[in-house]
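Question: I have long wanted to understand how a fold can be written as tokens. Here is the record:
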Amino acid sequence: MCTELYVCSHYQIPLQDQMDPLDRIKEQGNCHVEEMTMKIVPFSIVSLFLLALSACSSTPPPRPVTESFTTAQKETAREYKIQRGDLLDVKFFYNPELNDQVTVRPDGKISLQLAKEINAEGMTPAQLTDALTSHYAPLIKNPEITIIVRSFMAQRVFVDGEVTRAGVVVLNDPMTVLQAISQAGGLKETAQPAAVMIIRRTDDNRYVTAKVDLSSAMEGKGLSNDVTLLPNDIVLVPRSGIANVDLWVDQYIRKLIPVPIGVGLGY
């Protein structure tokens, strides 16, 4: 942005003079014209960076892997629990005419002969067997029932954040956090591997979170932090501090100031 600056020594323009002040100055001949180039000076870029860093660090960090988190993991992984979409064989030892093969419905229930609505989701096969035995006890003599899970709904985890391909990762075998991230295409350059979050739903419908330091695991140290995932876990890879600053500068400086950032002041 350029403008002409007219400098005059010992001259004042009367306020009551109706003549254009700029023309009046030019008439006196006791002035000279200078061209001044103005540039936007990033005089407080450092303070903006510090502000962005403080904003990024204002959120308290998630808790590290705790004993309660690993305990919940062991309890949840102890025995398979029936899910929506599972295919079940229901066998009656003494009453084969009641045998049936059913798929767990989207509402988590199954329907059988003499039992129209039975909740199956979230139960182990043994628990469902006990529930059916109690239901059929008044209806048939000596009910001996066995539940066989013929096919399983795909087990999955969710990987989000600073990974190449965020989304669903299928669990065909036991999988750790690093393995899930690898299936999602690996970490981006903007990732913060030292503060990866795992969000898990427990049996009593509570959500527990843990922070794992994958940077040490990636170096072959602290491999205990590479936690084994459970179905429906959520893995969230956060941005690094410098990536947050860069994003903040892009959103609040580069896109809001309509002129390019220059350096210095020239005349």
Observations:
- The helical segments are 21-28, 45-56, 67-76, 125-136, 177-183, 214-218, 241-254.
- The domain at 87-151 is CATH 3.30.1950.10 (wza like fold).
- The chain has three domains: 2-37, 87-151, 154-240.
